[in-house]
Amino acid sequence: MKASPFWPAEWAAQDGVLIAWPHAGTDWADNLADVERTYAALATAISRRQRLLICVADGEVEARMRQLATAAGADLDRIQAVRIDYDDTWLRDSGPISLVDGNGFLLLDFRFTGWGGKFEASRDDALVTGLFERGVFSLACRHESVDFALEGGAVETDGQGSLLSTWHCLATRHPDKTREQVEKVLARQLRIQRFLWLENGALQGDDTDAHIDTLARFVSPDTIVFQGCDDPMDPHHAGLAAMADELASLRRPDGQPYRLFALPWAQPIHAAEGRRLAASYANFLIVNGAILMPGYGDQADAAAARVLQEASGLDVEIVPCRPLIEQNGSLHCITMQLPRGVLADV
């Protein structure tokens, strides 16, 4: 009997990770050199462990990527470049969500609207189709377009049919739909049986309407790591404390509470013009055998790594991500993992 499709957790075995290299035609133009250093460090960390598929806008961007990745110590044998158009580099939200479907894979291509029409996104919305046309995915993969606005950073799974998300984000994307209607679509498309909705939690400097991947994440079926705030004078304190209470009230399928680990709070980081930036340690990426955690040059970086190691049992590597939060995202936001068997052989 053919197994039913399911959405694997991030810690399931991976073929690789998908990213898009920044260039002068993206929003990174003003701090491109700093951001490229972050991408080169990320490419090095990923390519030590698995393959890395990098979208590049043209030959000049590809040459620049290879030069910087080589200088940073990346394994070029594990890096594959694919030339394709894109508006920006937030591949968590415009890339495919992969379901395991029997002996193959179903790559879901949800509608990407630039976070509710905040930014131009037509090329990003066409990205998954373009990648299929370029043959980067294995013959075991099927492409399914879904006429429903959803970003990958808005949803989190334990790999066992549970979805964790913030209701504010989904309600903002679909103001004409009830919670029951939204759940019906997500249950059908993502094969979800349980919904764990958070009503609290948001970060200043985040323009995603409270993506879950900046707030709370599964690291195993029974463990959730979340962004805490231990400064009662910080404007985030009340909302994140209320979110922590919500997480404590959630139950696993067996009725037991989740193991919860609070991540430390970085000192406020501001852009040059004064706006607060969303420096969340919850925006980590799980790869094969390790967690890549964003670092912000803050004294809390090392403590956050220790929390993640204790919670997950995985090795933790800090990737310097201070430049990324200038554009309101971090490490998880620029990456999309691809389960083992999704990428074509090269």
In words, what does this structure look like?
- Helices cover 27% and strands 25% of the residues.
- It is α/β, with parallel strands linked by helices and 346 residues long.
- The chain has one domain (14-339): L-arginine/glycine Amidinotransferase, Chain A.
- A 4-stranded mixed beta sheet has the order 3-2-1-16. Strands 4-5-6 form a 3-stranded mixed beta sheet, sandwiched between helices. It has a 3-stranded mixed beta sheet with strand order 7-8-9.
CATH superfamily: L-arginine/glycine Amidinotransferase, Chain A
Number of domains: 1
Question: Helical proportion?
Answer: 25-40%
Mean pLDDT: 97
Q: Under CATH, the topology is which?
A: L-arginine/glycine Amidinotransferase, Chain A
Radius of gyration: 19 Å
Cα(first) to Cα(last) distance is 32 Å
Low-confidence stretches: none
Strand order of the largest sheet: 3-2-1-16
Give a short account of the largest sheet.
Answer: 4 strands, mixed
Class per helix and strand makeup: alpha/beta
Q: Give me the strand/helix succession.
A: EHEHEHEEHHHEEEHHEEEHEEEHEE
Helices and strands, with pairings:
Elements: E1 14-20, H1 32-47, E2 51-56, H2 59-72, E3 79-83, H3 91-94, E4 97-101, E5 104-111, H4 114-117, H5 122-125, H6 127-133, E6 141-149, E7 156-157, E8 162-166, H7 167-173, H8 179-190, E9 194-198, E10 216-220, E11 223-227, H9 237-249, E12 259-263, E13 285-287, E14 290-295, H10 301-312, E15 315-320, E16 336-339
Parallel strand pairs: 1-2, 2-3, 5-6, 8-9, 11-12, 14-15
Antiparallel strand pairs: 1-16, 4-5, 7-8, 10-11, 13-14
Helix pairs in contact: 1-2
